[in-house]
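LAB NOTEBOOK - FOLDING QUEUE
OPERATOR: T.R.
BATCH SIZE: 2
PURPOSE: Compare the predicted structure-token outputs for two unrelated chains run back to back under identical settings.
PRIORITY: normal
REVIEWER: second-year student, initials M.K.

ITEM 1
FIELD SEQUENCE / FIELD STRUCTURE:
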Amino acid sequence: MSTGDDHGTTLVGVTRRACWPAAPGVYTEDDVCVDPALGLAAVARGVGAIGGQGKPAGKLAVWSVAGELARAAPDEARDVVLRRGLARADQAIARLTAAWSPGLLRPHAMIAAVVLDGAQLIVAHVGRCRVSRLGPAGVEPLTVDHTVAATGEVDGAHPAARVVTRTLGRGGTPDLRRIDVRAGDVLALTAPPLEERVAPAALADALGRIAAAGVAIAPVADALVAQAASASPRSGAATLALVRIERGGAVAPASRASSAPPRPPWLYRPGAALASPPPAWCAGAAAGGPDAAWFAEVFDEVMAGD
């Protein structure tokens, strides 16, 4: 199973996950990673109600994909492995709250991911997380948001235009496509609302700077976060991965927002079927929702080390 290195290209990049102001009760529910050894970049937006309940969903989305890629057999098609990781994420996120009352808002997640496969890149997404590439005319979108507006039922000015129609944890089907890539190509993976805080021209300028050989990606990523913060100074969040396709060479270290994988084998067990959930968290159990037990036994175990 090729990560691209044996075909002369490799994937390198950096991640940023920021929220402001730095104060109690201010948090982000997102996760993001760039792992050159796996040929993977992914960004996920977790969605919950209050108290950061969506954090485990965002983390499970990214780690489920990374885990399946890491444990895949050498001869497995990367499209198949990527779909399996997304399906595993959907299953795990649904399990987070299977015992909650149906009337409660349940955590779910959106994701965008790219996987290098020789001279091609597999692009996958669910929801409003996006993948963009620098093209001759500026930023070229490689994904189409799964929103009501994208269905053509309403125009972009309609109040329901941005309502998301597919998410992980709710059976959302991912879209996958393949594109040809070559050394020097530059991509951005972003979680909303970054696209509302950074203008397309500014993103194109940032990608243009890191397209140049030898230009460090990290300062460009920091500048984009600063732009997002200046556009919404009172409060906000910015989660992104900037990726450059390079010619061979040593594999760069991974860049991750979350440092350790989830612990519970009933939510994360790459390369094998998920274990059975504890009885207290099975569908139909008499759990009362996001209570202290859920935060101690589910939330904390998924968010271990973060």
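ITEM 2
FIELD SEQUENCE / FIELD STRUCTURE:
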Amino acid sequence: MKKLYFITAICTLLTASSFAQKTPTKNDPEAKKILDAVSAKFKTFTSVKAAFSYKVENASGKTLSSKNGSILMKGTKYRLSFSGQEIFCNGTTVWNYDKGANEVTINNVDPNGNTITPQKLFSNFYDKDFYYSLNGEKKIGTKTIQEIQMTPVDKSKSFHTVYLQIDKASQTIYSTKVLENAGNRYSYTVTSMKTNIPAADNQFVFDKSKYPGVTVEDLR
């Protein structure tokens, strides 16, 4: 979950305290309009390539780590590179490669699983899995940002709140912040994004021949 809570997303320079805070217990029609627009916009792209920054904070706001990553998405396929890890998904199989250990773990995609994949953040999964409300707008640089607060319907989740920040002009996700029950906060901010770029299907499949000596753990 920590690797795949993307944006993107795909995130953050989030300062959620600058918005009026409220815990959603039902769905806000204004927030739904924004989320539906983001989902519709994403579905017009044949592919998306994005770079993002990642930050982990503890409950008091102290930064524990800060890293960068990138992701390429095409339909149900994605390839995520992040902090010594590469995750390949061709829509049916997931390869999780650990560079330090030179080991790859293979699993089938579980369509009913709890993992939030990059695509789920851009689809209408929110109607089923979350309560959501619009907190307001603010300026970050030249961007007008709309923040949506989301709480999971299933209270057994390991997190209790997700903040999505939407670029109002482009109708794309700017950042995501996940608050875990244990206290840590995981934030991802999109630093660049390109759409409708060439993306061959083989880019989303782990090619063992390119990783000499790799140990394969097939859990399918």
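REVIEWER COMMENT (ITEM 2): Residues 114 and 181 are 16 Å apart (CA to CA).
FOLLOW-UP: none requested
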